[in-house]
Write a structure and sequence with these properties.
The protein has helices at residues 2-44, 46-55, 69-74, 76-87, 91-95, 99-119, 158-166, 211-223, 241-244, 259-264, 274-281; strands at residues 56-59, 64-67, 149-151, 154-156, 230-232, 235-238, 286-289. The chain is mainly alpha-helical and 300 residues long. It has two domains: 1-40; 45-289, no CATH class.
Length: 300
């Protein structure tokens, strides 16, 4: 009897040890998979990240950045290799990703192909002294409508990425037809149009795991730039971005259903005092939109 109880105890102890080992192994494997997934995400944009680190510098007390397009041109082969790596991603593979990974991919794609558009024309015979991205358009079309981007099996334009794939994307997994897939107005402070008036081209690549932090930092650095957004008495003076894309800031982001409510989310950055906040909240504050500077955001 005692021998039988002893044997059962040994067996139970052994089985418990096996079970614990299995649980620990499964947990460790899960941790490895999460780490590997994050590493793959970073690796996807590693070349772009380095190019940005090499060729983008902060100016204007960190509110803006200037771009070394000559440096990008010297590293053009690396830029092209990165763009080629984006082009091989299929639409079905993209659709399987989580939204933060999708959005980081699209923002990086937009910014990298914008740089490619500038670099491929920078200091050339046709454009020896390129002054603005708008010079790359024509009388009848803008540079943003130029179809030169091989992505998802199509030849797209910058407009297609920004207005179609990002702003115009619809989430088909919800019953509310027409619901914005990303509903992320802060992308306007992340995509860069190669102009001084644009929010800063970030000095690093966007990644899924850091996207929320990166978008918030981009929003803060832009809205706190008093050369482009500032309040004075009962007037608030804003970048024209808020005029062109006003509707994007009124779709319920953090509860904001109008532009005033979105601005109040960043009242500290805009340096709104208590009285100005109340005036803005009651829709009694005049909103003015500043002229946009389309000069190239190049290092002088």
């Amino acid at each position: 009897m005692i021998k039988s109880l002893f044997i059962n105890a040994v067996i139970n102890t052994f089985l418990s040890a096996v079970l614990l080992t299995t649980v620990f192994a499964s947990t460790a494997q899960a941790d490895v998979e999460v780490t590997a997934k994050a590493s793959m995400e970073s690796d996807m944009h590693a070349v772009w990240d380095k190019l940005l680190n090499d060729n983008v510098v902060a100016i204007n007390n960190g509110h803006s950045t200037a771009v070394n397009y000559a440096g990008f041109k010297a590293q053009h082969s690396q830029l092209k290799a990165y763009l080629n790596s984006l082009s091989v991603i299929s639409k079905s593979e993209f659709n399987d990703w989580e939204k933060p990974k999708q959005l980081a991919f699209l923002i990086n794609a937009y910014n990298a192909w914008t740089v490619e558009l500038i670099v491929s024309n920078y200091q050339t015979k046709k454009y020896p002294n390129l002054k603005s991205i708008r010079d790359l358009g024509s009388l009848f079309s803008s540079p943003w409508s130029k179809e030169f981007i091989p992505l998802f099996g199509e030849i797209l334009s910058l407009d297609d990425i920004e207005h179609g794939l990002i702003r115009g994307a619809v989430d088909t997994r919800v019953t509310n037809i027409g619901k914005s897939k990303y509903n992320e107005p802060r992308i306007h402070f992340a995509v860069n149009c190669a102009s001084i008036g644009c929010p800063a081209l970030r000095e690093e690549a966007y990644t899924a795991e850091m996207l929320e932090t990166q978008l918030q930092q981009q929003t803060v650095r832009f809205l706190s730039d008093e050369s482009r957004n500032f309040a004075k008495s009962n007037d608030v003076n804003l970048s024209s971005i808020f005029k062109w894309y006003k509707g994007d800031f009124e779709k319920g982001f953090k509860g904001a259903t109008n532009l005033q409510e979105f601005l109040l989310l960043y009242s500290n950055e805009l340096k709104l005092d208590t009285a100005q906040q109340q005036t803005l909240r009651s829709d009694n504050m005049d909103i003015n939109f500043l002229d946009y500077n389309w000069d190239l955001n190049a290092i002088n």
